[in-house]
From TrEMBL:
<dbReference type="Pfam" id="PF01695">
    <property type="entry name" value="IstB_IS21"/>
</dbReference>
<dbReference type="InterPro" id="IPR027417">
    <property type="entry name" value="P-loop_NTPase"/>
</dbReference>
<protein>
    <submittedName>
        <fullName>AAA family ATPase</fullName>
    </submittedName>
</protein>
<feature type="domain" description="AAA+ ATPase">
    <location>
        <begin position="172"/>
        <end position="303"/>
    </location>
</feature>
<dbReference type="GO" id="GO:0005524">
    <property type="term" value="F:ATP binding"/>
</dbReference>
<dbReference type="InterPro" id="IPR002611">
    <property type="entry name" value="IstB_ATP-bd"/>
</dbReference>
<dbReference type="GO" id="GO:0006260">
    <property type="term" value="P:DNA replication"/>
</dbReference>
<dbReference type="InterPro" id="IPR003593">
    <property type="entry name" value="AAA+_ATPase"/>
</dbReference>
Amino acid sequence: MIDRDTKRLRKQAERDRRVEQVYQKDRKFYEIDQALRLTGIQLVQTALGKITPQELAQLEQTRAELNKAREKRIKTLKLDKNLFEVHWDCQKCQDRGWTDFGVKCTCLIQEEIDQAFTQSGLTEEMKSQNFETFDLQWYARQGEQGPALAERMSKVLKLCHSFTQDVIAGKSQKDLLFYGAVGTGKTHLSSAIANELLAQGKSVVYRSISQIITSIYEAKFDFQNQGRQPEVLKSLRQADLVIIDDLGTEKTTEFVITELFELVNDRQRMGKPLLISTNIALRDLPGRYSLRTADRLITRSICIQFDGTSIRQLRAEKAL
């Protein structure tokens, strides 16, 4: 996240440099501004009762005359008035991130969203995949089964959108388990869900199973990086959504089976949803990850099968 105090100081310093350049070019302008500062200090003293009403009236008249002289000098020198202002990126909060009423500013919300996109694990291509770009026509064109396949995927699309809205609303729900052939839309819909959540300021971790297991292993056993364990495990267990991609492509070990079960169990216990994508059949999960883990994955998830011809293959063939 941006160091906002440092940013504000930098913006103010930039303004001071611009003003100093004007002072160096025009001594009279400098003298007017210095007189205005002195008058301002004297007026502050009125709150302390250190000047008489007559002196106060004279100071206010002097300030008015100086302001008039300053405006005239600005016109003579053809200066932009904005030159003397701090050029905040966000005028609403002046780059503080919070409004005067203690409410998080929209610029800070956007910054958090941008950071979430950076840290989510989404590639540039995946960031462009959303519900609107999920084209059902690729399914409709697949021979005799096309119309029925497109109709079923239309229902899947609506289900995924509903799942996303429930996550945004913080509603407790089942996990999603996508399974089926390569290139049939699992990644696109996973990315669409992630992008919609990120746009709404929700936190998403999108990683392959190998990346997740590696992160957990390094956090627990890489003693040269002590202190990472709480951060890594917290993000995996407390993110609004964790998406595990390519389940089944990793080398399955006892450590993998144990950590996968713990992650699934912890998130289900905390009411935090998972989205898991795999190319292997549901019937093969028990033999690979133990009956206990497979039971948690299958019985507590909405299982959606993706089939048909690879969309990526169809796109590639059309491009020829």
